[in-house]
Amino acid sequence: MQLANYKDIIIIGGGAAGFFAAINIAKENPERSVTILERGKEGLQKVKISGGGRCNVTHAEFMPSELVLNYPRGEKELLGPFHSFMTGDTIAWFEERGVDLKIEEDGRMFPVSNSSQTIIDCFISEAKMYNVEVLYNHSVKTLDARATDFIVQTSQGELTCNKLVIATGSNPKIWKILNDLGHTIVPPVPSLFTFDIKDKRIKDIPGVVAKNVEVKVLGTDLVSEGPLLITHVGMSAPAILKLSAFGAVEFADLNYNFKIEINFIKQDTESCLNHIKALKYTLAKKSVIKSAQFDLPKRLWKQLVLAAGISNSERWADINKQQLEGLADQLTKAVFNVTGKSTFKEEFVTAGGVDLKEVNFKTFESKRIPNLYFAGEVINVDAVTGGFNFQNAWTGAYIVSQSITKT
Ligand SMILES: Cc1cc2nc3c(=O)[nH]c(=O)nc-3n(C[C@H](O)[C@H](O)[C@H](O)COP(=O)(O)OP(=O)(O)OC[C@H]3O[C@@H](n4cnc5c(N)ncnc54)[C@H](O)[C@@H]3O)c2cc1C
Fold this sequence. Notes:
By secondary structure, this protein is an alpha+beta fold. The chain is built from 14 helices and 21 strands.
């Protein structure tokens, strides 16, 4: 006879990965008890606020070798797992449960309802259907790994289980516990943030978007491309967010103080110079400020022209060599000082977590402690924005469910 506080499988964390693992385990193993321990009075809180309340569930990228390129940490390790469960499987999984996803122009995928509540409702009803026990207000305080089982001490008492899944996201207390159990924890740093920049050129033009720029971080090899958005405090959008993810560790080391060089038109300085030199003749009588080139937004063009020392009233015919060169520099290698970071509200994650060397990526089981599994952000995997972070949670959780089912 089993004791009342004995559970077959415990999942710590009632977030994205925790629910996904629990549902899949319970479906395949009706004879085993599956229990989620969630510290909050509700679970799935990040799912709720994700993607601006719409939940960017995954991304329409169907090649594992391409998909992994979106993971600054986890690129190598996720290749195998994505061959087992990736975006197409995620779409099918939700579709089978009546949740249709749609693809937006940039590849992000959302529920057709445009509401994260659809995902939450799906998880809650699936968990109920497969008899997953969800214990809310159960914060895990300590873990003891014994030869044949685990003792889990929660705020509401002690539980014992045979298999343990850690799906606690970026929770420092659980990392500390795992560290005490012998796991290496890569120190956490923020990823996916916007850059704070105080600069005359962008001060008065929040909301302006340059469609396709190149951003280099001076003194490093970091470079990215894509749309750039001027905000009230600096710069955002994929060109910046990708950098913030790939440079997360370096930027933390630099205390978020560094210089970036932006090529607003993705042309070399010389061809840009040739283009604008010709305008001295073709647009001779036109005001420089009023004749935006290279498909740049008019307000951004104006600021770059002023920064090149060309005044409001000057016409193309009036400007000298130095001003032309100054403008070419502003357009192709404008340097900005980054002085801090701000939260990107649509999605932010933490780099760091359980060292990937200590996880078996065929099973997502710990290499240190048998019968201990990980899913989601608790391991040192994180991605750029676009639905890739959830895809990591679904993939890891699914593979955990398959591994546990086989044992
Ligand atoms: C504002 C915001 C928006 C986002 N939007 C997107 C998006 O649209 N698309 C995308 O791909 N990613 C998005 N992300 C990232 C995504 O939410 C995470 O990568 C994902 O939630 C990780 O899932 P997880 O299950 O590992 O962790 P979480 O979802 O964080 O779940 C962990 C759970 O564990 C519980 N827990 C922690 N410690 C304990 C404990 N000691 N005892 C018991 N329970 C505990 C927590 O309460 C929580 O419920 C967003 C993140 C944020 C912050």
